[in-house]
Amino acid sequence: MNFHWSTVKVALALGLPNIARAVGYRVSVRLGINKVRRLHADVPDGAFFASTNLPAIDAPAVSSWSREARWFGRWPVQVSDAPPDWFTNPLTGVRVPDPARPWWQIPDFDSKVGDIKGIWEASRLDWVLAFAQRARQGDATELARLNVWLADWIRQNAPYVGPNWKCGQEASIRVMHLSCAAAILGQVREALPALRALIKLHLERIAPTVQYAMAQDNNHGTSEAAALFVGGTWLAMFGDAQGFAWAAGGRKWLENRAARLIGKQGTFSQYSVNYHRLMLDTFSWVEVWQRLCGVPPLSAAWHEKVLAATRWLHVMTESSSGDVPNVGANDGARLFPLTDAPYRDYRPSVHLAMALFGRQHAYPLCESARAMLTWLGVPEAAALAPAPGMLQADDGGFAVMRNGSAMALLRYPRFRFRPSQADALHVDLWIMGQPCLRDAGTFSYNTEPRWLSYFGGTQGHNTVQFDGRDQMPRLSRFLFGNWLRAEAVEPLSGSDPVTMAAAYSDDQGAFHQRSLQLHTNYLEVRDRVNGFAERAVLRWRLAPGDWTLESDEPGSGFVLSMANGHRLHVSADVPVTRCELAEGWESLYYLDKTTIPVLEFEVAHSGTLISRYEWST
pLDDT tens across 2-22, in order? Predict the structure, then answer.
């Protein structure tokens, strides 16, 4: 009964119009009445890109896709001059069975294939950008390679057949990468017929299912709206009547998505730092494309929302490395890898968005950030953006505290949209740009239940877990029930210390209140817990290192220390039943997991737990 009531509550929270869109889509595809089931298109014939005599760009081309590529920014995959097998996952060697099936006959999660993202990665066409860059720098062999690979891709992936046509967002990413390559080569207004045909058959795949994308209230909608706008605008240049309609629809949905999915303080609907980057890169490309094509700009309200999202990510980004807190879902997605900046370096994206929407430059000394602008023809802004400060984004439950060399992030439950992780009151702590208390990440969407539970569940976060269960019941792979609501939120305030507090009660009566004080050389966290049945376990997920655990106050206090001067002191005003250094896991990249030390501190009675993380200034 509780499960059914939880499902009903989630359905109401998701919104009946969204549910109607999603159900209507699935039923119409299954019954064969959706237009997408009746699509047919010829394979485009001829070259996709012409040779160019334009001068070289004053920025280095990427080194990837020459002899090696990296799946999800992490896993090295050897490549050659010949196109790859588009239906084999190079990380597992598994090939999609019967790839000639219509895409709608292929299951979402096929146990024989494993994670389909390993198949999709090459078909996102990152390599189109790499080849186009090197062709623009005068390498004619790369232009030939670009045309050969594209011809092979569309022959092997005949329109609307096989796994690489299964997802409208994947098709949208291809549209954006193809349009970006055309911009790099100066061939937007001189696009060859085969390229225009390739764009059109992609938009014909995206348009009939766009309502389903919008029902997700996530980056599927932002990506597909952008593809319709970009591709439609492009085709309209050549008098294509459908192009005008697609461009108008894309513009409408772009306005709608920014208004609905980006909060006043800039939080994106997915509560994920990496998906925030994906959305922001998408909107940045829309702005670059609009300026390039000379079509009317989007509204002032749209620009205002995207600027808020830009500032949100700027606050999250560590200036010296570009790294960010590993908070929220992360599937390895990255648009427009136009530089050799590592996957976890967010500075190129922030620098681009800040120049476009804030008319400021964020990282003037970062070569990869400046190269991003150069490749896209965006001039450097004259003004310097202020250094990242503090932020309370109550629109999504994020508070960023700063004091001296320290940054602390508190995640509290403000769920207007579906949460992807049970991470209420999680805390990240960064000292001098290095993560000291950290989030587990994601690992994989298609893996064993124990890993889905670990990385997305309460156990994978720096918070308190009650009675061995998640803070919210998991209803499905991507859906939690009984969404938490923040209570007693105290605003971010002060300078030394900086303070913040929030609380929640779960559906079984457990209560957790967390208050933070960030000083120049220590972070103090007080957790008041009650209402649980048997046990409350506080976890601190630590940086790898040689930690030593000692008893400090018999029965209540313990000290964890490392040679670099970092110390974590934990105590309670009730008896402690367990305190130990356990082995945990974190995933900084999709499909990658490594061990880290985790302090587990357990009590059996209601009380207050006090944690103090110290470092040398």
Answer: 656 667 777 777 777 878 887
Q: Mind listing the pLDDT tens digit for each residue in 238-273?
A: 999 999 999 999 999 999 999 999 999 999 999 999
Distances, alpha carbon 587 to alpha carbons 276, 336, 399, 411, 439, in Å: 18, 23, 23, 19, 9
| Distance from the Cα of residue 324 to its chain's centroid | 11
603 and 575 Cβ atoms separated by less than 8 Å:
yes
What is the distance of C-alpha 478 from the center of its chain? 14
Whole-Å CA distances, 321 to 69, 137, 372: 22, 28, 16
Q: Strands 398-403, 406-411: parallel, antiparallel or unpaired by DSSP?
A: antiparallel
Query: 186 exposed, middle or buried (CB, 10 Å; 0-12, 13-18, 19+)?
Result: middle
Residue 59: which of 143, 136, 129, 126 has the closest Cα? Answer: 136
Closest CA to 281 of 349, 220, 211, 332: 349
330 token code pair: 């992360």
Q: How confident is the model at residue 37 (pLDDT cuts 50, 70, 90)?
A: confident
What residues does each domain of the chain span? 391-614
DSSP 3-state of 587: strand
Give SS3 for 353: helix
Closest CA relative to residue 404, chosen from 530, 288, 527, 496? 496
Identify the pLDDT of residue 1: 43
- In one-letter notation, the amino acid at residue 73 is G
Which CATH code for domain 391-614?
A: 2.70.98.70
Asked whether residue 576 carries a pLDDT value surpassing 50, the answer given is yes
Q: How far apart are CA 212 and CA 103, in angstroms?
A: 16
Strands 360-361 and 383-384: what pairing?
Answer: parallel
Residue 265 DSSP code:
T
Nearest C-alpha neighbor of 183 from the set 142, 141, 229, 132: 132
599-617 average pLDDT score: 96
How far is the C-alpha of 167 from the C-alpha of 273, rounded, in Å?
A: 22
Token match 């859906």: residue? 479
Per-residue exposure over 495-529, b if at least 16 CB sit within 10 Å of its own CB, e if not = eebbbbbbbbebbeebbbbbbbbbbeebbbbebbb
